[in-house]
Write a structure and sequence with these properties.
about 350 residues; alpha/beta; Metallo-beta-lactamase, Chain A; seven-stranded mixed β-sheet; five-stranded mixed β-sheet; 14 strands; globular
Length: about 350
C-alpha cells in the first residue's frame, strides 16, 4: 500500500468476491469483479436490488468487455447470485470498453433497456461500428502519436494494426437507450440514486450517489490506487481535458466525508475528500514538473519519463502519451507554454 492509500479507509480490507460470485457491501448493493486482459487486470461491476413497475429484480451497473470468459462468469452469476430474480435494467457509467463492452449482450439476454448519457451512448455506438478506432489504434492514432514524437517504426506499426481495437471489445451497442442527465435521480429499489456528470476521462461520465445508503458508484472518476486517465487522443487533437477532470472532481465535494466509494478499479473505500485533494495535488505536481522540463523545447515523448518512471508496454504507452499531451495542453492553454510544429513534423512545447 502506497503512502497516499494509508490516508484512505478500506472497510472490507482485502476481502473481495471470487470469480462468478458477488459480495454484499450495503443492503441491496453487491460487488462483482471481472477480468481484463491488461496490466489493469480487473473491473468492478455492481448489482443493485431493484423493483420496476412492481417487478422485483436487479439493476446492473457496468458490463465488462466482450469476451467469452466474461460472458461465462456472468452466466454463473445469473445462475447462483440473483436469488431467482431477473435483471431489470443495465446502467453504464461511460463508453470505455471495460464498462460498455457487453451492454448489448446483457440487454438482449434479459430484454431490458440500457441507461447512460447521450454523449457516451452515441460515441460508443459509432465506435462499435468502426466509425472511429477509439484513439488507441489505426492510421489516425499513429499519425497523432507521430506528431507528438513517437518515431519507433515497430511501435507505430503495432498501433496501425489496432484499427479494430474498440469494436473487438465492444462489437455492438443496443439500438436504443434511456438517457440520463446530470442531477437526474434514478429510482432503484425505492431509493434515489443521483447522477453526477464528470468530464475529462470520458465525454459524459455518470457517477451515481445514493443518500439513503451513503454510497457513491464513482466509475473511473475517483479511484483509490491509481490516477484516472485523462488523455488527448487523435479524434480531439486540440482537447484540454485535464482542467475538465479537475473541475469535475469538485462536483463530489458536497458528499458526506464518510461516503462509501465503489470505484471501477481497486477496492471500495472511504476518504472521498482526501482522495479528491490527493488528485488535485498529484496533478499540480505533475504540471510543475512538466513546466520545469520545458525550459527547452520538448515533445510529448520527451515528457514521458518525467511523468512515468516505470516501464510501459505499448498499450500503456498509448494512454501515457495521451496523458502527457493533456498536461502539456493544460499549460499551453493557460499560456505557460507555447507550441510549434517543427521542421521534422514533431510538435514541441517550450516555456513562454
Amino acid at each position: 500500500m502506497n503512502p497516499l492509500e494509508h490516508q484512505l479507509q478500506y472497510p472490507f480490507a482485502d476481502t473481495m468476491p471470487g470469480p462468478g460470485k458477488t459480495m454484499e457491501l450495503a443492503s441491496g448493493v453487491r460487488w462483482i469483479r471481472m477480468p481484463l486482459p491488461f496490466a489493469l487486470d480487473h473491473i468492478n461491476l455492481w448489482l443493485l436490488r431493484d423493483k420496476i413497475d412492481g417487478k422485483e429484480g436487479w439493476t446492473i451497473v457496468d458490463c465488462g468487455i466482450s469476451r467469452d470468459e466474461v460472458k461465462t462468469l456472468w452466466e454463473e452469476i445469473f445462475a447462483t447470485q440473483l436469488e431467482g430474480l431477473p435483471v431489470l435494467r443495465v446502467v453504464v457509467t461511460h463508453m470505455h470498453p471495460d464498462h460498455v463492452g457487453l451492454a448489448s449482450w446483457l440487454c438482449k439476454k434479459w430484454d431490458v433497456p440500457l441507461t447512460m448519457s447521450m454523449t457516451d451512448y452515441t460515441t460508443a455506438k459509432l465506435w462499435s461500428m468502426g466509425q472511429s478506432n477509439g484513439g488507441t489504434g489505426g492510421e489516425s492514432a499513429a499519425q497523432h502519436l507521430g506528431r507528438h514524437g513517437m518515431t519507433d517504426p515497430e511501435a507505430l506499426a503495432q498501433i496501425r494494426a489496432r484499427a479494430s481495437y474498440y469494436p473487438s471489445l465492444v462489437p455492438e451497442m443496443p439500438t436504443s437507450y434511456a438517457r440520463i442527465l446530470d442531477g437526474q435521480k434514478l429510482k432503484i429499489g425505492g431509493h434515489d440514486w443521483q447522477a453526477i456528470v464528470g468530464y475529462g476521462h470520458a465525454p459524459e461520465h455518470i457517477s451515481l450517489f445514493c443518500p439513503d445508503k451513503n454510497v457513491l458508484i464513482s466509475g473511473d472518476m475517483v479511484l483509490p490506487r491509481i490516477s484516472t486517465n485523462v488523455s488527448v487522443f487523435d479524434y480531439e487533437p486540440l482537447g484540454n481535458p485535464l482542467p475538465l477532470y479537475l473541475n469535475s472532481l469538485d462536483n463530489f465535494n458536497h458528499l458526506p466525508a464518510d461516503t462509501l466509494i465503489l470505484p471501477s478499479h481497486g477496492k471500495p473505500f472511504k476518504g472521498l475528500h482526501e482522495r479528491i485533494a490527493q488528485q488535485h495535488e498529484h496533478h499540480a505536481e505533475r504540471l510543475a514538473e512538466v513546466l520545469e522540463a520545458c525550459v527547452t523545447p520538448q515533445s510529448t515523448t520527451d515528457i514521458l519519463p518525467v511523468l512515468f518512471k516505470r516501464k510501459l508496454d505499448l498499450h500503456q504507452t498509448t494512454f501515457a502519451m495521451g496523458e502527457a499531451i493533456a498536461h502539456l495542453h493544460a499549460l499551453y492553454f493557460e499560456g505557460k507554454l507555447s507550441r510549434e510544429l517543427c521542421a521534422d513534423g514533431i510538435i514541441r512545447f517550450v516555456r513562454t
